[in-house]
Structure formats: structure tokens, C-alpha cells
Amino acid sequence: MHRRIWIPAAALCAISPAHAEWQGKAEAGVVFARGNTDTDSVNLKLSMSREAERWKHALDLAALRAATSDVVTARRYQAGWQSNYNWSPRAFWFGGLRYENDEFSGFDYQASITTGLGYKFIDSERVKLSGQIGAGYRRLKNTLTQQVENDPIYSLGADYEHQLNMSTKLVDKLRVEGGDNNTLIGNFAGVEVKMTASLALAVGLDVRSNTKPPEGLKNTDTLTTANVVYSF
After folding, report:
1. CB 98 within 8 A of CB 107
2. Alpha-carbon distance 170 to 155, whole Å?
3. In terms of Cα–Cα distance, which of 225, 169, 175 is closest to 44?
4. 105-95-117 Cα angle (round to 5)
5. What is the DSSP string of 14-32?
6. What is the pLDDT of residue 37?
7. Under the phi-then-psi rule, with left for phi > 0, alpha for psi from -120 to 50, and beta for the rest, what region is 69?
């Protein structure tokens, strides 16, 4: 099956060596089990952001692969880009691009472009809570029928962080893209514990739901991860 991982051209330019102010983190979790059943699992994440005056740009990449006895049971690739313009200390405008290729969701791909407004409800050193609402356009391809569908969508999002102490942080990220052809709901909740200034351990639960998957497929998938995190 032909697969495409689409990354906005702007994102590729932004991570060029000429930009030295980017900050972010890379995560990796790997499991190899051998015995009566052979199981392999790999999940990788990369998050980067850069702030310049009133602008904030963020890039997120993720990949997941799992197999049991050489039979692939999960394969997912994601790429996302969002730019925020802060027109007040708490309110901002955003523009976002997202691409997802999830072989076992029933959709070959889901790609969207969205724009809207956001607000920082809490913005302290220990607790941060922001929400956003917008609208846009999505293109998706049904795996079974190979039909490509296009529709206008609404988007919702919420980001929560709570720094419990110097080493432990709670995070929760919610994303919703809804339209006539499908509504995609994703929520990630996790805890991150620092071991050194640049290394940490992270445990999380990723829940994803498609309200209108192709016939015979389940609506919801869950993924529990335990990753090593490197901050840079």
C-alpha cells in the first residue's frame, strides 16, 4: 500500500539549522518480547516550538508500529503544525495543518487545515490551561472503498499542564475535528518525571476515536506508552 507522510513546507524550512531558538523534546519507547509469542513495539515522538515576539510556531511528529509474531497490528504516522499569533497576553489566533496515516483506523489518511481563536484561561508558572475553537477543511480516504471525501469541519482543542514539583509534571491534550464524514477525537493524558536536566521518564494514555469508521471496525483505539524523553 502506498503511503504518504505529508509535512508542511513551512515546517521543513523552520527546522533548518539557521534557526537556533527552537526548543523541544524527543521521546522513544521500545518493547521486544521473545518466547511463546514474539512481540515488537516502537513509538517515537518529536515536539518542537519557537517563540518570536508575538508569534509561536509548533511542530509535532509521531510514529507507532507494533507487531506480534511478525504480523503488524498497528502502524500510524502523524504530522502537525500550528502557528499562534498573540494579539493580547491571553488571547491568540491560530492556523494549523495536520496529516495522519493510520493503517488500522479504516482511513488511509486524514488531512486538514484549520484556523480560529484561542484563549489562555490559566497561565502561571505551575499551571497552564488553554482552549481553542475554529473551523477548516478536511480531506480523507476510506481504506475499504478507496473513496476520497472532502468536507468543512469544526475544530476544538484544550491543553493542560500542571507542574506538581520540580521534577513531576502532568499533561493533558484534547483535539477534536468534526464533520459530516467523520469526527476524530483524540486525548492524551500523561505524567513526566525528570531524572536529569535533559532526561525524563514519561507514562501516558492516548485515546483516539473515529465516530464513523468503515463497517466492521471499532470506533476507539487506546495506546499506553512508557517513554524515555530527551529535552533540547
Report:
1. no
2. 24
3. 225
4. 105
5. HTSTT----EEEEEEEEEE
6. 62
7. left
Domain annotation for the chain: domains and CATH numbers: 9-16+25-231 (2.40.160.40)
| CB within 8 Å of 179: residues ≥ 6 apart | 138, 151, 152, 153, 154
Whole-model pTM: value is 0.83
Q: State the Cα–Cα distance between residues 102 and 64, nearest whole angstrom.
A: 9
Segments of the chain scoring below 50 in pLDDT = 1-20
The SS3 of residue 11 is helix
Q: What is the spatial distance between Cα 111 and Cα 141, in angstroms, rounded to a whole number?
A: 9
Name the average pLDDT for the chain: 88
Could you tell me the CA-to-CA distances from 98 to 5, 170, 175, 180, 198 in Å, in that order? 11, 25, 11, 18, 28
